[in-house]
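Objective 1b. Sequence-to-structure analysis of Transketolase.
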Amino acid sequence: MTDFKWSELDDRAVKMAKVLSADAVEKAGSGHPGSPISLAPIAYTLYQHFIKHDPNDPKWAGRDRFILSGGHASLTEYVQLFFSGYGLTLDDLKKFRTAGTRTPGHPEYGLTPGIEMTTGPLGQGLASAVGFAYGQRYQRGLLDPDAKAGTSPFDHKVWVICGEGDVEEGVSSEASSLAGNQELGNLTVIFDANHIQIEGDTKLAFGEDILKRYEAYGWYTDEFSFIQPDGTYKEDTEGLAKVLEKAEAVTDRPKFIKVDSLIAWPTPGKTNDPSSHGSKLGSEAVAGLKKVLGYDPDKSFEVDEEALAHAREVAQRGLEAHAEWDQKIDAWRKANPDKAALYDRISQGKLPEEFDKAIDDLVDTFEPGSKVATRKASGAVINAIAAVMPELWGGSADLGGSNNTNIKGAASFIPAKDATVQWPDANEYGRQLHFGVREFAMGAITNGILLGSDTRPFNGTFFQFSDYERPSVRLAALMKIPNLYIWTHDSVALGEDGPTHQPIEHLAAVRGIPQLEVVRPADEYETAEAYRYFFEKDNTLPAALILTRQGVPTLEETKAKARDGVRRGAYVLVDTEGEPDVLIMGTGSEVQHAVAAAKSLADEGIKARVISVPSMEWFEEQDEEYREEILPSAVKARVSVEAGIAMPWYKYLGSYGKPVSIESFGLQGDGDENMVDLGITAEHVEDAAKASIAAVEAAE
């Protein structure tokens, strides 16, 4: 932090922040003015004195990261970005919540300079901030593990402001528990305790001692109040700074600082009132606020130029901090040329030269005719590329052995004192992640790792439990960040665990998320090629690999065609001479049934083309010519086969196509028998093909 000095100009800047926030919501006609008004002194103190940042270079690698978890209070951050000189203008504040704005209702990653992540749904900002702290620690371990704490160019801090809604959401509890277990001393959370949410006083639904809860998680905790013992209110930024300085001295635990405040203070008639949380204040209240703060009630978006100039001096301090960091990283580069080469590669998002060879060598070991679960094939690929990609790390929600997400020989990412009999090799820079049974936090944390570091995480669970992870998956898709989900046990073939664990609607559900690439490989070859393309693909979006528990045949057909075919999303696996009579499309474990059905149909003189469709999303990226080549519009008879509901397939089936699908929940019983009992067989594919051909003929 800087030497803390508070002047009249700082007071004036805070007052201006309050007025600008009120005006922006009033002009928009909607929004959340209360929190930005009362958070103004806290956010200003952080940006001016605690957060290391350079407004001239918002992506500076040496910066601290700030996450406003309560994204509805976005003006808190926008005003400070305007004050600090990030390029946001007064016009941007005037366009708050409008179409085409750089100041949307909730912060959006990639849109506004200085915004580290999209924080819309409450709790995910705080949970992802834990991932930011994970990523910082792992990257430091890759590049500068022996440096004394606080001396490395890869040391930075993660700052968060959150509110009651954030800590009420379960995902923040999941992630905060992990943060305490990990002893993330680079993470500081400021909890704005204003005791107000939309329905009123938070005691309606939130009554525990939050500091004791976080203390139980293993966090350092402290409390500071703007509400004085006599009931008066004082925005004592000097006192707050002392509390934050004290917390900064703690390096072996994450920090949780509760600040008691009054929402919308000092707005007449709206202070401590729930209406100020989610609605504009109204012209009378805004005028009253301006009078109290010494502003002209008849003017809107009034700027105190002297106070603004004072606030923007932070940009010069940022340049100085950046210059110091440049010297530090230059010295590190000279002392560590090999590590510097690694840093340059991963910071540029480039793959190692050995990447393709690692996959090729593995593919050479596959044997057509063998039977291997795609989850096992996935584990083999992870370990092959992990050997040449030190930036690759990950794990599962307590399912590493089942998901095959364990990296052989890797230390666990956890303080060494917490090593276990099962995982004796543990240190703070390990690459094997353990999330416990916390799917949602796992997704949010890996989002934070991607956003806060140059490393590449993956995470896994059973496909059924992607439901628990889904909100963070959606946020990754919205931000267009390449998170990798390894979801195994993908069908009713799971068997004995029963219908609670057997995904039916899940393929349709995750395919319904825009900008998420869903990949369901048929065998070992397709699994390897799915990984290859995911990492090679430009502008990679998040991807979900949907994998089998049961063994599936390694196909001779995919050996020759998967390398080029998988990256196209769909390709011809088995073809006919001349125009086919019917097109049979399949994914995953059902491709084998499509191939078997085609052979039987051929014996009856019916020409069936088999198309493997590992990824609808990748197929849709192809040009019209290729799509027509694979699925010729002249062939109306079509069949899809997939062990789930048929909903996603109707766009390809057309008017006469027949799905082979499962339209009910699963069954208790043997997995192979479940597939037969629910109609996922080659025989049913044959019947569907004949029925589709008959439907076409009847219509002609």
